Amino acid sequence: MPPRSEDEIAALSKELAKHGLGGINPDADQIHDLFAADRGGPLQFVNLLCYYDQARYPKGHELDGTATSGADAYARYGLIALEHVTRRGGRLALYNDVHQVLIGSRDHWDQVAIMEYADTEAFLDMILDPDYVDGLVHREAGLAKTLVMVTRSLLPAPPA
Fold first, then answer.
1. pTM of the predicted model, to two decimals?
2. Partner of 124 at 20 to 30 A CA spacing, among 1, 17, 58, 149?
3. Between the CA of residue 12 and those of 9, 23, 111, 160, what are the distances in Å?
4. What are the C-alpha distances in Å from 31 to residues 23, 50, 110, 132?
5. Rounded-to-integer distance, Cα 62 and Cα 137, Å
């Protein structure tokens, strides 16, 4: 796919802003940078995840006021997200509990996940899918903070 024009990237940013910007969602500049730097091919998102003790569902949601933990809320989102990722040729490459920070900032993280997408287009198709968007309520209810890094492998592809 040819590189996106600035107008196309701006239109995507506007559409994705409906999910909310900043905090646990990318801001407009981060969205712009993701699509402007697209080189095609697979990419991995490294997700550092920190959960609320108690999920924070919006008022009126069926799970508002329940004893759902933040980790359980995020797990509901994770099942939805994984189904969408795999349908588009991606995979969950790693999903682990964090036991300690050995080197670096002592920020608290509960889990780390690495999600691999076939390409940026597959990611975009997923995040614009209304069924996926409906599942974001669980992500937002569960996550106190997150850090998501977009990475690309430096290793050669394994032989077929």
1. 0.88
2. 58
3. 5, 19, 29, 35
4. 13, 22, 25, 18
5. 11
- What confidence tens digit (pLDDT) does each residue in 103-113 have? 999 899 999 99
Q: Are 48 and 112 in contact (CB under 8 A)?
A: yes
CB count, 10 Å around CB of 124? 20
Coil, strand, or helix at residue 113? strand
Place of tokens 């509990």: 97
Tokens of 126: 């997923």
- Residue keyed to tokens 């004893």: 67
| Mean pLDDT value of segment 82-100 | 97
> Which H/E stretch holds residue 115?
strand 111-117
Closest residue by Cα to residue 133 from 7, 15, 4, 12: 15
| pLDDT tens digit sequence for 5-21 | 778 777 777 777 777 65
